[in-house]
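Please decode residue identities from the backbone states below.
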């Protein structure tokens, strides 16, 4: 649901902002020609945080979808992809290349707050629009930079915190270790008697935990683990819903698109692209 909400918000913003490109003269705007809009996409495509790159993969898929529809006012997106590996030094190098060498029209992406904060001094003074993908440190966009050109495409940390205060959260660390994951699951299920489980970023841990959670019928939303065997085949509690949940559906859910789906192009009308991510474009003044 969270991903769909972000998608809807991005879609509405895209429809308004992309339309503004038509009023810009190609010879007056860096990264914009009569036929192309050059976009720089930064993200951790390799390294320990590479699971977050699915957002960038999704938004690039949406750009391709727009191109397949004829582009924006006759212009098609030209994507320049740079890997930050969630490393500040690599992020700075990527930003400098995209801004000064590739001369992109705008930047989209960045899933690591540490990288985004390191990159900000390079990007902010240029006035190049930069849409943040996953990084939630509020200092990336607040206070507003002088050029008013950096935007959060997702809620920042304080927004998540104020929402989470309304829930009684019990946190357990798995350390990406199957044994610790099993112990954590048993504690949450049998001792803490939680209403539902949310999270787990390691497929090995999720697969080890599944035999403990599945028979209970407690809803479990997988966060980042992408092994399709975690939720498929559907566990037997599909049709036997506990009172704690009256909503029909699976007891084990993938909270995001599985790995192979994230790389699939899409069906003809582009709905899959909209699930994966949206491109939002703002024309510079």
């Amino acid at each position: 649901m969270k991903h769909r909400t972000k998608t809807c918000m991005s879609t509405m913003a895209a429809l308004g902002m992309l339309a503004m490109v038509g009023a810009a003269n190609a010879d007056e705007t860096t990264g914009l020609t009569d036929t192309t809009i050059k976009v720089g996409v930064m993200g951790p495509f390799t390294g320990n945080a590479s699971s977050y790159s699915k957002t960038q993969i999704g938004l690039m898929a949406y750009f391709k979808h727009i191109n397949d529809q004829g582009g924006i006012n006759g212009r098609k997106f030209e994507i320049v992809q740079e890997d930050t590996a969630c490393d500040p030094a690599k992020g700075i190098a990527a930003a400098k290349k995209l801004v000064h060498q590739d001369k992109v029209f705008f930047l989209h992406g960045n899933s690591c707050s540490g990288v985004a904060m390191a990159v900000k001094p390079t990007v902010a003074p240029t006035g190049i629009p930069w849409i943040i993908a996953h990084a939630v440190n509020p200092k990336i966009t607040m206070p507003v930079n002088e050029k008013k050109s950096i935007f959060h495409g997702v809620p920042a940390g304080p927004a998540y915190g104020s929402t989470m205060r309304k829930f009684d959260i019990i946190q357990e660390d798995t350390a990406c270790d199957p044994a610790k994951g099993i112990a954590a699951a048993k504690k949450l299920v049998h001792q803490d008697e939680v209403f539902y489980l949310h999270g787990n970023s390691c497929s090995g841990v999720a697969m080890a935990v599944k035999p403990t959670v599945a028979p209970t019928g407690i809803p479990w939303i997988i966060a980042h683990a992408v092994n399709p065997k975690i939720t498929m085949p559907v566990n037997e509690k599909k049709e036997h819903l506990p009172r704690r949940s009256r909503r029909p559906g699976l007891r084990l859910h993938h909270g995001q698109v599985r790995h192979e789906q994230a790389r699939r192009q899409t069906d003809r009308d582009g709905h899959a692209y909209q699930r994966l991510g949206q491109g939002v474009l703002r024309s510079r003044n």
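Observation: Confidence is low (pLDDT under 50) at residues 1-17, 239-251, 256-285.
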